Every structure is written in C-alpha cells, then in structure tokens.
Amino acid sequence: MVLGFPCNQFMGQEPGTIEEILEYCSTTWGVSFPILDTIEDGGEGAHPLYRALTQTPDAGGEAGPVA
After folding, report:
1. Is the pLDDT at 15 greater than 80, yes or no?
2. What does the record list as coiled-coil region(s) (predicted)?
C-alpha cells in the first residue's frame, strides 16, 4: 500500500492546506491512495513515523535518511 505524506521541506513543493493538497493531487495526477496530513521529515520536528522508517534497516541491512 502507498501512503502519501506531504512535506513542504523539499524546496517548497507542497505548500497549502491539506485540503488544497488533496484537491491538487486528485485532479492533477489522479492520485487514489491515501494522503495524510503534512509532516516534517527532518530536524527535531520530524514525524515519529518518519523517524521509525529511517531507523529500521532495509532488506540490505541499511538504515538512514530517505534519498
């Protein structure tokens, strides 16, 4: 399953309210997977889910920031 977590920390690519983001993604790209509220993925304000995902080793045994 794909889950979308908008984050405006990547050169301001996802500004706006969650309602605006949902409208844009559905009408522009036809997104049908769940999109949750905007999160932070870095720094002290990083969302707990993002922290957990970057600390859990992948199939190759590596963990770290998503590139």
Report:
1. yes
2. none
Rounded Cα distance, 47 and 45, in Å: 6
Q: What's the whole-model pTM score? A: 0.66
Is 35 in a helix, a strand, or coil?
strand
Q: Cα(27)–Cα(42) distance, rounded to whole angstroms?
A: 29
Looking at beta carbons, which pairs linking 61-67 to residues 24 or more positions away fall under 8 Å?
66/41
pLDDT in tens, 19-66: 999 999 999 999 999 998 888 887 788 889 888 888 889 899 989 877
Number of CB atoms found within 10 A of residue 11's CB: 6
* Phi, then psi, of 61 in degrees rounded to 5: 85, 10
